């Protein structure tokens, strides 16, 4: 029989200085229980252990694995978009494809709705002292659907495949500068080390469901996923028909708790309106993803539940710092002060989002510094800034963007707001492919325009937003923002292993970005999943994935 | 020659579409080198004439090539989609042709009376309504509120012919509505002209029963222009149903063309467009043959020539 309560000293024994530091700041009250769970998970401490720490310090019971109050054996029917390419976990790069591979495949860890990295195929992980080597202990007894046991060789092969430039992997840009081919090394059959190019405090997110290509495939995988669908997950493929749908059945040899549904069916629709109609007609139970604007008819529908998951997905407004209009940071600040962020979230997003403060540090990130003042609408101050910058007469500029989700409506709102400071904004709204173009300077309206609005999906940590779109060397830096102080701060944030150091760096970054304002972060929009009343246990993620193993009809 | 010109037109017009294949496959934020590598592997970084020449050389030898996006042979996909489109268009034809001819006949026999006005105005109104409007209304009516018909045309595996027809009724209805007004109007005009003609008057004065006059003399002559109209709609019914196919999740050749154009999947696009072109050519030929079969004057003139 185990003791229900353990003393804190007993729990501390055997922990690294970094882990003990986390407990110290938790006891001091500098981090919340949620942050303890999140950052402790990141450092490789198990959730039951962290729960015991919280219990020992009087912060409530240990977390328990949630299981739906649902009947087993159901068939769960999902409406979603079709994968736009062949289903290949290595090359593929679209959300519907990720949804498909995640039904049969699994990651080393999962970045769930609470942004906690949870063990999955890895049961634990540890960084070395400077965060350049991360060691993952693999779960034993995990079987691929084809019968073989998942071992370190499969993990190493998976990451070698994703990081090999010859394979043109969809995850190559995520691993660039962090992990190269050969960086994943087998220690023994159940232990893998990742040798990184530079220190990284958030590396577990990179091998989690946050990098949707990173499902663990057998070492023998030869690119024929649509034939094999070989993974380790709780469901096995039943049938996949291109552009029509897919069905999966319960994997009776699953290493974990058996999935509740006997079967899941995914029906592909090219647009959202037919998905809504199918839900209304009772032909599907779930719509995986809907935008607030498109799903407005469902938000007040008593026959459905709209699951609103806070995410860090956002639509940045980029202002080119090297353009004649926006080279002065005071002009950029003035534009930022025109935004009525409350109205944006309440009106445009129908309350399904949180306001932004002109940095990618959303309030749901534990590392975000909450002491940085929130920027609000202030037209008189904006006018003063325009005058100080010698732009009191205003100017005419084109805002280029794409037809995607709420963006055109967002552009129109900005257009109306900046009129107050004399800016005559012309809108150029194009299709998505034209907008991004070839993603090189001179061939991409996204990178070339003086002002643009793009869309960034959710990430469990802000690293990619900092490195790719704000750093001087970032490959997608539409603001052309080049600031050595920012680059140094971003690098120190990425390398920081403890939450205090991350928060300190984040605070400096947030303040610097408020001062410089190369990009407006007006809001972070929720990921909305619509579920018919009577269906329980559905678990979506901000990355558009959908975990159905606990789903059932109540 | 027509098909060759069509293939040239599609290939070179397709080049102005935005985006590239590699980025479509790897996503908008993919690594630039990775995108170039995919484009190289697929051969789309070669000069346009080389790409076209290679493709047409294989096509002439019966190889439609491999889809850039799905990485499978194009021919089975096109064939399957064509089968689907033929089923839907066949059902639409079976429903719309007798209905619209009957409508035209009724209107012509009651010229300027209420029944004529109702058929004419309703027909023109329905033709003017886009398929996505009528489609959504029909889905809401029969699929959501009454729940009589499935809202998706994707029938279950192993479904028999009757089940397939059941799944295709709703998608066929917007097509019937669009075509009804057009064909009925042509049938009406032809009927009015035939009813006014000397040979009809002669037949009536000969004392033939009215039903026989209509059946043997009026209809046979009145339907000649209608047949041309019906034939001209064949290509549209088989290859132009992008909206209906998207709305009802039907995997016909129209949606295949649409997806191929969006992703610059050139082998798929060419194969689909040439297939449709071939169908247009065959439909026109069949219309000519039918015309000459039904109109003895054409046969006699040809024989005299």
From TrEMBL, chain A:
Keywords, A to Z, come to: Signal, Transport
| Gene Ontology cellular component list | ATP-binding cassette (ABC) transporter complex; outer membrane-bounded periplasmic space
Q: Where are the transmembrane segments?
A: none
- Predominantly, its location class is periplasm
Solute-binding protein family domain residues: 117-436
> Which PROSITE patterns has this protein been placed in?
SBP_BACTERIAL_5 (PS01040)
GO biological process annotations for this chain's record? peptide transport
Q: Which protein is depicted?
A: ABC transporter substrate-binding protein
The organism of origin for this protein? Bradyrhizobium cytisi
Per the UniProt record, the lineage of the source organism begins with:
Bacteria, Pseudomonadati, Pseudomonadota, Alphaproteobacteria, Hyphomicrobiales
């Amino acid at each position: 029989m185990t003791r229900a309560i353990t003393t804190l000293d007993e729990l501390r024994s055997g922990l690294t200085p970094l882990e003990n530091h986390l407990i110290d700041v938790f006891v001091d009250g500098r981090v919340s229980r949620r942050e303890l769970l999140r950052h402790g998970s990141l450092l490789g401490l198990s959730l039951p252990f962290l729960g015991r720490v919280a219990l020992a310090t009087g912060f409530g019971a240990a977390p328990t694995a949630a299981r739906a109050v649902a009947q087993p054996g159901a068939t769960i029917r999902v409406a979603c978009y079709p994968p736009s390419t062949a289903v290949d976990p290595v090359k593929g790069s679209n959300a519907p494809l990720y949804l498909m591979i995640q039904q049969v495949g699994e990651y080393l860890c999962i970045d769930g709705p609470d942004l906690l990295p949870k063990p999955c195929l890895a049961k634990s992980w540890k960084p070395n002292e400077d965060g350049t080597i991360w060691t993952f202990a693999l779960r034993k007894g995990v079987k691929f659907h084809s019968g073989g046991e998942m071992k370190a060789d499969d993990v190493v092969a998976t990451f070698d495949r994703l990081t090999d430039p010859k394979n043109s992997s969809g995850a190559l840009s995520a691993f660039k500068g962090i992990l190269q081919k050969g960086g994943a090394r087998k220690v023994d059959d159940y232990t893998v080390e990742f040798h990184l190019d530079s220190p990284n405090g958030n590396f577990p997110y990179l091998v989690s469901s946050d990098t949707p290509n990173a499902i663990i495939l057998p070492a023998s995988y030869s690119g024929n996923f649509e034939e094999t669908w070989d993974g380790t997950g709780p469901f096995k493929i039943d049938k996949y028909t291109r552009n029509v749908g897919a069905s999966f059945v319960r994997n009776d040899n699953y290493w974990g708790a058996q999935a509740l549904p006997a079967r899941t069916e995914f029906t592909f629709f090219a647009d959202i309106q037919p998905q809504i109609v199918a839900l209304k007609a009772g032909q599907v139970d779930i719509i995986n993803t809907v935008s607030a604007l498109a799903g407005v008819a469902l938000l007040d529908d008593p026959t459905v539940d709209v699951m609103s998951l806070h995410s860090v997905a956002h639509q940045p407004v980029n202002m080119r710092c090297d353009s004649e209009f926006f080279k002065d940071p005071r002009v950029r600040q003035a534009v930022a002060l025109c935004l009525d962020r409350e109205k944006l979230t309440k009106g445009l997003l129908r309350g399904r989002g949180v306001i932004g403060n002109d940095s990618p540090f959303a309030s749901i990130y534990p590392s975000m510094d909450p002491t940085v003042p929130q920027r609000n609408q202030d037209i008189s101050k904006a006018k003063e800034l325009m005058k100080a910058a010698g732009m009191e007469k205003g100017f005419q500029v084109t805002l280029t963007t794409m037809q995607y989700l709420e963006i055109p409506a967002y552009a129109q709102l900005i257009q109306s707001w900046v009129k107050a400071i004399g800016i005559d904004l012309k809108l150029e709204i194009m299709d998505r492919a034209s907008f991004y173009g070839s993603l090189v300077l001179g061939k991409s309206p996204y990178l070339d325009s003086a002002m643009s609005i793009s869309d960034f999906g959710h990430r469990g940590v802000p690293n990619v937003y900092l490195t790719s779109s704000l750093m001087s060397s970032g490959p997608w830096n539409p603001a052309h923002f080049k600031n050595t102080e920012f680059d140094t701060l971003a690098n120190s944030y990425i390398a920081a292993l403890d939450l205090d150091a991350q928060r300190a760096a984040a605070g400096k970054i947030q303040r610097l970005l408020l001062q410089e304002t190369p990009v407006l972060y007006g809001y972070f929009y929720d990921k909305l999943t619509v579920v018919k009343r009577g269906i329980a246990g559905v678990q979506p993620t901000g990355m558009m994935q959908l975990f159905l193993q606990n789903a059932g009809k109540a | 020659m027509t098909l060759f010109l069509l293939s040239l037109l599609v290939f070179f017009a397709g080049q102005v579409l935005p985006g590239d294949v590699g980025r479509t496959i790897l996503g908008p934020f993919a690594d630039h080198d990775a995108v170039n590598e995919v484009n190289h592997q697929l051969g789309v970084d070669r000069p346009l004439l080389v790409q076209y020449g290679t493709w047409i050389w294989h096509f002439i030898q019966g190889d439609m090539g491999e889809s850039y996006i799905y990485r499978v042979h194009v021919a089975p996909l096109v064939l399957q989609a064509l089968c689907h489109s033929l089923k839907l268009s066949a059902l639409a034809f079976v429903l719309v042709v007798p209905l619209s001819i009957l409508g035209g006949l009724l209107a012509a026999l009651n010229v300027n009376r209420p029944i004529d006005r109702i058929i004419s105005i309703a027909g023109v109104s329905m033709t003017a309504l886009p398929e996505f409007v009528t489609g959504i209304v029909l889905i809401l009516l029969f699929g959501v509120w009454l729940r009589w018909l499935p809202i998706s045309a994707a029938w279950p595996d192993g479904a028999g012919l009757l089940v397939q027809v059941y799944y295709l009724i709703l998608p066929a209805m917007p097509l019937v509505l669009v075509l009804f007004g057009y064909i009925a109007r042509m049938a009406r005009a032809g009927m009015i002209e035939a009813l006014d003609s000397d040979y009809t008057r002669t037949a009536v004065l000969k004392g033939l029963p009215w039903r026989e006059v209509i059946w043997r003399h009026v209809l046979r002559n009145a339907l000649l222009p209608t047949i041309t109209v019906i034939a001209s709609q064949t290509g549209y019914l088989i290859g132009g149903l992008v909206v209906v196919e998207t709305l009802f999740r039907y995997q016909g050749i129209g949606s295949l063309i649409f997806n191929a154009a969006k992703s610059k999947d050139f082998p798929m696009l060419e194969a689909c467009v040439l297939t449709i072109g071939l169908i247009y050519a065959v439909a026109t030929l069949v219309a000519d043959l039918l015309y000459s079969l039904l109109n003895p004057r054409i046969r006699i003139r040809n024989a005299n020539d």
